[in-house]
Amino acid sequence: MGPSGAGKTTLLDVLAGRKTVGVTEGSISFGGVAPSKEFLCRYTGYVEQFDTLLGDLTVREMLLYTAELKRPVAEPLAAKRAEVDALLRRLGLESCADVPIGDPLTKGISGGQAKRTNIGIALVSRPRVLFLDEPTSGLDSCTATEVMRLVRALCDDDGTTIAATVHGPTAATFALFDSVVLLARGHLVYFGRPGLPALQYAAEEWPVSRTVSDILVLHRVASNGFRRAAGASQHSGFAMGARGMAGGGAVGGDGSYCNGVGAVDAGGMIHHQHGGFEGYSDFGSVVLEFGDRGSAGSVAGGMAQSAFNVAEVLLEAVMEAELRGEAEKLAAAYDKSELKTENDMLLRSYLAEGARGSLVAPRTRAAALALARIRTGSADAEGGGADGFAAVAAGRIEVLAAAEARHSTLQVLDDAAALEVDRQVSKELATRRGTMTPWFWGLWVLLKYRTWRHYRSVGWLASRIVDKAIIAFIILTVYLGIGDSFEPVNLVNITASLFMWAILPAFGAASYVPVIILERRLFIRERADGLYGVFTYLAAKLAEELLLALLVTLAFSAVVFFRLQLQGQWVVFWLVYFVDLSVGIVLAYLVAALSPNMDVGNIALPSLVVTLLFFAGQLITFDAIPVWWQWYSRIDFLRYAWGALMLNQFEDRDVEFSGGLTVLQYYSLEGANKWSYIGFLAIFWFVFSLLALLALTFIKHHKR
Ligand SMILES: Nc1ncnc2c1ncn2[C@@H]1O[C@H](COP(=O)(O)OP(=O)(O)OP(=O)(O)O)[C@@H](O)[C@H]1O
């Protein structure tokens, strides 16, 4: 927890191995050892602050898609379905299971449902650790509490370790956490229990001004009971109680705190016996009850009640310190505190215990601390067993906590199952594979869920067919029947029609750029989640596009070739068109992978294609190109596409064209082989594919 910019997401990213920029110091241990990238991909889940879902899938499909990619291939589909159904039930998503998720423009599920779907995605593979970045952001307080209760249940029921960032939790939400890391400007200012203990710490250790007076009062009330608090406080006039505390009462003061609800007399305090206050929980909040003047007994009559959110007080205090440029002071106070000494001891104990220690970590801090003393061989504990422990407990830890700690200790030491868990975790930590499924399975799942859905989407299909249909229509109507006329006046028309046929797929490829850029956030998340590798992703994208391109090019090339009455082989005419379009698509992917954003991507590809036009051989013949530009013509794939079409048209009838030169001589194509040219085109496809693969793998536009 911490104010905006405190470093919450940064801390989470560092822990989850998702930080891509900056220098990180220190070390991170999972189960006692530094985690590998592969372990983090496979055995941890990360729910980002913003939704990264596939809008055209339903909630159930989204979870099943993830399950098929993240759970073992050997597991039958029925078992995966059952797991997804159980998750839907658990996450309260049954009512919207078959509703398409939607996107900002097409309303699908609600914000809370989307958040729960994201959590479901992270849970599909039953991760050891679940990271949640502001899981409650954008949700109303009721839904937020509901989501966090669900998360708490995951921890309680499955033993999943949860690390979540929260910005301004409700009292109820705050109470769900076992411990809180409070950050300010990237510094750790508190690490311990939430609620009153945190308040107590703040009151004692933080050098803050205004808020501290409130904190102090509360702290005294909390730790010493009302009697002493009343005596000490000149600030507040309120009656107060917290569930689980010794009692409640009205505290006299000057009324400054109680918003004019009616203060009791200064210095006066009356006990009241109103037990069982409606606090949200032991540590989440303190309930303030503003009573009638001087009459705490009449709690029922005319009483105003207000919940005091400890998280809010802490945040307010931290923000105040930040505003005064004193965040470092809070951090320094923590560094010197007894709390830090205790935390360090706990940490050493967990590290020493490794996987077993962290998995069987006791629930309460007091118990954990007692355990730590035993584990680290503290003098008190060396007395042995329960007695030794009781000695520790007698000092600073309550007897109840001692019993709990002893129980946990016995569990740690005696439970054979813990050894098995230990072994299992060690195996997981040693994993060398970031993804669960082989590449061909990943490819199949991507095609099954995403491509199949695209192929049923009119919008998706239209964006890939209509442009080619329009071009084919124009070429058809403009150049109709010119292909078999070898009159000198018609030769330019033929070369021009072939030129247009060769270059337009490259221009049209601009429409494939957004696919990669718009999906970038999803791709990064799914890759980091270990759903698939870059090769699988690229292969799926290309398979999806090339299959459609195959059908579209077959249809349009047949109509154009025969209606224009072009010469040569139709199969060459089609093949050039198909390979040319494929090169354009993969070039678009390469440009998209290199482009930091849509603006750059949109301008980059058309600009590049324009430069290629100049050197394709039709606007200026190869021999006429200045020598220092000829290299560019050699690596211009459009030159080979158009060249192959020209060779197909004229190789059997190379008529005189200009200046005593035949067509192929004039365009420097004489002696060239159309199949070699098609082969060159194919090489471009492979080279661009490889470059796109490298760019997608190594270029990280997403800085976090
Ligand atoms: N320990 C640190 N050392 C140096 N810089 C840090 C540290 N922690 C965070 N930062 C920097 O502070 C900035 C804010 O961090 P971050 O986005 O993690 O904050 P946040 O608490 O998640 O904010 P918000 O609530 O607005 O999302 C980032 O530029 C980050 O790089």
UniProtKB/TrEMBL annotation:
Membrane topology (UniProt): Multi-pass membrane protein
GO cellular component: membrane
A Pfam family hit: ABC_tran
Gene3D superfamilies for this protein: P-loop containing nucleotide triphosphate hydrolases
Molecular-function GO terms, alphabetical: ABC-type transporter activity; ATP binding; ATP hydrolysis activity
Membrane-spanning intervals of the chain: 458-482, 494-518, 546-564, 570-591, 603-629, 675-699
Keyword list, A-Z: ATP-binding, Membrane, Nucleotide-binding, Transmembrane, Transmembrane helix, Transport
Subcellular location: Membrane
Domain ABC transporter residues, every copy: 1-210
Source domain of life: Eukaryota
Stored PANTHER family: ABC TRANSPORTER G FAMILY MEMBER 28
Protein name as it appears in the record: ABC transporter domain-containing protein
